[in-house]
Amino acid sequence: MNIFKIIKDIEQLDSEVYARIDSRRDVFKNMGSFGKKAALSAIPLALASVFNKAYGQSTNGIVDVLNFALKLEYLERNFYTQGLAANGLITEPAARAAIQKIQGHEAAHVTLLIATIQQLNGTPIAEPTFNFGKNFADWNTNYQTFLTLAQAFEDTGVRAYKGQAANVMSNDTVLQAALQIHSVEARHAAHIRRMRGNKGWIEGNHENSTVPAGAQPVYAGENNVMQGSVTDVKTLGGGYTAAIATGAFDEPLTKEQVATIVSLFE
């Protein structure tokens, strides 16, 4: 094992590694302090110490984000599982097939997130017990209520993953996995929205006229027309309306906003 090559490789992957721990000189000095008689078995421990010092804090933060995502995936998977099991709720064959596929996707997301958290030496959160009838008593007897909540959950998932992307950017593997899940959640949202007879995208506060009051926090801020350095997208010319300006961009949700939404079902 070439320790110095490993350190050099780390430096190439992360130019700020020495800022996180010691200076380059001190790192090599500390490595050399083991002496020629140091047992080879001590080398992995030394490297682990360096890695923990350099990356321990950021890894903990990433695990927190992954557990945040895992809770959402638990909610979605269980919602579809219970919906499919509800007698007489989803009877149309094409609709049932679509919900079965979406449930399978959510189950795969749960499995991936648990495995990723464990690979980062984190502890996946325990699966919560959700009460979907807490604020929506007919969710498993009224097909339209079921679809309304399905749309709300999928739209929440899209905005929630977007809101946490910056917090996992330090880990390319985790970021890639999060983006892969995010795009699938967006496809779910568009499909469910079409099943309800809605457009496949969100336009302003229009959703608040199509969902119960309890689900309206899902769409908070979606009427935003200010993007990036542009004060108002509608001022760019080209006849942009508020509907186009808001439908062209999805807004992120914060952890706190998502927690408020999930609390409706706990």
TrEMBL record:
Family matches, as Pfam families: Ferritin_2
Family matches, as Gene3D superfamilies: 1.20.1260.10
Record protein name field: Ferritin-like domain-containing protein
Originating organism: Pontibacter qinzhouensis
